Amino acid sequence: MDLNERFWSSSIEELKLGYVYDAVDDAYHCLTCGERFEDGEIFRHEDTGRLYEARKYAALHVQHTHGSMLAYLLELDKKLTGLTDLQKELIRGFAENVSDTELMNRTGAGSASTIRNHRFVLKEKAKQAKLVLTIMELMEQDSVAAPQFAPILRTATQVDARYVITENEYADLIKQYLPNGPDGPLASYPRKEKRKLAVLRHIASYFKNGIRYEEKEVNELLSQFWAEDYVLLRRNLIDYGYLDRNEDGHAYWVKGLETEQVRIDKGKDVMSVKKEVQNNKNDKSAKQGIQEREAQEQQNDKKEVQKIDKAKRKQLTAEYQERERSMGVFQIKNNVNGRIYIGGSTNLDALWGKEQFVLSMDGHTNKELQKEWKQFGSENFSYLVLETVKTDQKIRYDYKDVLDAEGRQPVDMVHQYNREVASLKEQWLSKLQPYGEKGYHSPAEEGKR
To answer: Which residue from 27, 32, 111, 433 has the highest number of Cβ atoms inside 10 Å of its Cβ?
Structure first.
């Protein structure tokens, strides 16, 4: 069982403790970093030299290594907790017994009565959550054959329908895309997001928690799954929240551990500041100095984030330009009435997203498709690549593979690609006949061909 599965299968009490006992391997596991403490083994505390049995030492590990579980859980994404940034800040204040007036000043939440209202809303939210948990437990208790869903990644960048997959579906997908065994290689790399996430989840399981990998090590590991484009795998693992890396890309790790250390360091700083405020609560100059220091630290953090973001954007742009250019014919289908639209492009990469954007802005050139998009809703349409143009060599996204000696774009080559895509589109129009009730194309298009 991996860290995510253990985290999501834990009870409320276990999440509050920060560790869980696993009867399968007779050991206690930290829910934050996954460190294991075998039952029956004796552990020596480094600072005090005292000896502890596994359960007690697991508790000490959570307390001294990760700090408050409340603080850790509040760092999780809003999509997972359902809490806004303001609610998270208020909860921190409530836990510290901060007065409503001080919380008002800290959060800028209007008035003390507004703070009290937020406190009431949070308590009502807790009551609802308790009822929902009870209902779900009763439902699963009575539903013996209920499907078991694969756990959602704690560091997921966006939680949505792509993550709705059962364990059986997950196992079937891994067999489909890794027919030679779980160690690879991939038979193909899925285009559909849900399948892609399943494959990435499997590949990410080969990276161990708490270990920092050099880029060369990451590339070697990923090459066993897809030697032709391990760079794409590496980028997707980062984009989807499975891995993280430092600014220069020399070190990679399972996402969550680096940010956890930052959180611990920040937590220590906060505690030292609070202690200083308490010892000097009557000294206004001391408080002012602390506030100035906090403001400076926030400014430094902001600059560092901007620096990292700029470097990351530059690296991602360079990697994106190296992607293979995919050219061919695609289909947009109305899943309610079966009508289809056929299109062609010399750049299929992210085309579905572009088509959706144009349709959502009511700007598509095909008026019939645009009309039914508004009538039936985007959720009732699907996208499929019908066929791609076969080229003698891999064509990079920026066409640099076919540039002339002076770096200029060979116009005749680009025109040739356009002609090949147009020819392929004509073949599919002739084959599928997407006219009248079958599609969004007009018979006039047939006459022009």
So the answer is: 32
How far apart are the C-alpha atoms of 188 and 244, rounded to whole Å? 25
Contacts from 211-220 at CB under 8 Å and sequence distance 24+?
Answer: 211/253, 211/254, 212/251, 212/252, 212/253, 213/251, 213/252, 213/253, 214/250, 214/251, 214/252, 215/249, 215/250, 215/252, 218/243, 218/252
pTM of the entire structure?
0.37
Q: Where are the domains of the chain?
A: 3-66, 78-142, 161-254, 328-448
Residues near 108 by Cβ (< 8 Å), separated by ≥ 6? none
pLDDT in tens, 11-26: 888 888 889 888 777 8
Tens digit of each residue's pLDDT (9 = 90 or more) over 102-134: 888 777 766 777 777 787 888 888 888 888 888
Query: 328-448: what CATH class?
Result: alpha beta
Q: How far apart are CA 114 and CA 104, in angstroms?
A: 8
Question: In this structure, what token pair is assigned to residue 233?
Answer: 């795998």
Q: Are 320 and 232 in contact (CB under 8 A)?
A: no
Q: How far apart are the two ends of the chain, measured CA to CA in Å?
A: 58
Query: Dihedral of the CA atoms 34, 39, 42, 45 (nearest 10)?
Result: 30
Chain centre to alpha carbon of residue 102: 35
Peptide bond into 185 cis (omega under 30): yes
